[in-house]
Specification:
alpha+beta; GTP Cyclohydrolase I, domain 2; elongated; dihydroneopterin aldolase activity; 7,8-dihydroneopterin aldolase; lyase; FolB_dom; folate biosynthesis
């Protein structure tokens, strides 16, 4: 059995997109994460080193979004999943990348992609 650790609404500024103005000007991206983690060791020890440090994870994900522009949010979401799975305690991750300012010529609230990845899948650590 694994528990779920969620980090939602992580705001980042990135230069991702297929259009030149997206790469040049950048835009806001919002990331939601749900991690499958066994939290029993941390609960028993009350020791941060026994669990995923969500503060450090947030900074690593933010850095992954704010560097090395890509065209697609699919590529960005995979990059974020890979960062999360670097911690061997993370058994699986669900990543949602929101692109609320996507260049769409219609009124909309959000564009979001959610992916799920688990340890040992092809392409995952």
């Amino acid at each position: 059995m694994v528990d779920e650790l969620a980090l939602t609404g992580l705001e980042c500024w990135g230069h991702h997109g297929v259009f030149e103005h997206e790469r040049r000007d950048g835009q806001k991206f919002v990331v939601d994460l749900v991690l499958g983690v066994d939290t029993r060791p941390a609960a028993a020890s009350d020791d941060l080193s026994a669990t995923v440090d969500y503060g450090s994870l947030a900074m690593s994900v933010k850095a992954a979004v704010e560097t090395d522009p890509v065209d697609l949010i699919e590529t960005l979401a995979q990059r974020i999943a890979d960062v999360c799975l670097l911690d061997s305690r993370v058994e699986w991750v669900r990543v949602t990348v929101h692109k609320p300012d996507a260049p769409i010529t219609a009124t909309f609230w959000d564009v979001a992609l959610t992916i799920a990845r688990s340890r040992g899948e092809e392409g995952s650590p």
